Amino acid sequence: MIKLYRSLVLLLLFVITGCAGLQPFNYAARAGDTIAIAAGWKHQFSRDQLTVTFQPPVGDDIVYSPGHDSVRASINFYADPTSYMAVGSELYDSGDVIDDPKYYYGATYGSTMTAAFTDLDPDWWQTTVVVDLPSSLPVGNTNVLLTSSGSLGEGLQVPVQIIEGDGSPHTLPVEMMGAITDYQLRIMERAPNYEVQFTGATVPHAIQVDLTHDVGVGKPYVINTRGDVKSLKWTDNGQNMRVLLDFTRENPVHTNIERFKFYVSGGVTGLQVQNIEAVDVNGEPVAGVTADIVNHF
After folding, report:
1. Which tops the pLDDT comparison, 135 or 297?
2. Residue 110 — φ and ψ, nearest 5°?
3. Dihedral, 163, 165, 166, 171 alpha carbons, nearest 10
4. What CA–CA distances, in Å, run from 52 to 49, 197, 211?
5. Residue 161 forms beta bridges with which residues?
6. Does one domain contain both 19 and 139?
7. What contacts 214, CB < 8 A, 6 or more positions away?
8. Which helix (H) or strand (E) holds 89?
9. 120 by DSSP, 3-state: which?
10. Residues 11 and 68 in one domain
11. Which pTM does this prediction carry?
12. Which helix (H) or strand (E) holds 114?
């Protein structure tokens, strides 16, 4: 069984598995126990999208269909923004070198994740799936397959060694609150959202983007992915939205435009880009900047 404090500590430490780490934190467990699976940087891995298939060494496969109660949660965990990895990555990216190996190794690891796993996107997270193992699994090595019905075709396979003994789902107790309910776990999952991404040959210093959405549906809420990297201001009148983005450092060395990404949530629908204006650090127009909207519903 997993201990909540232990799982939270481990889940937050990307360096244990890497951003694309694909393994359970409990490699050995009893049938019926609860495990936490580090699934990597996943975008369409909600409970309602996941099919979990258990392939035991003998006998038939056992399948949890999307939304199955034994898939307790699928939650994204983020690195500490004051970690050596986060701070070192930004300092070294801007050419600032500190005589401290922890910042250097943090920058090295951060740049590896950004280049190899997140397609230059500094919005790092580790998707973690909490699953109750079937009580009927036999002793031996079981393969656990997680497949998403989302358009990205995301999935992974991890091994779990089933040991002897009768397991049981963990109640995940926390101080002063007692056992965490499945509902409390699930409200930590990512809400439906639009992801607004930018492209352009030249990285600007600031962007203003005007958008529209359906009237009377939801309440718009705009989320900044990296507040240490860029500032974000927004207004909305119930149909028209304006978002202002600019880098927090006056003269950073801009390496990629993915840093301007933001999310729109709150249940709004029909989000569309109407106009974009981009400028450099001197306020001069930067041509060729476009925006794409990815629907995560």
Report:
1. 135
2. -65, -45
3. -70
4. 10, 30, 38
5. 28, 141
6. yes
7. 239, 268, 269, 270
8. helix 84-93
9. coil
10. yes
11. 0.83
12. helix 101-116
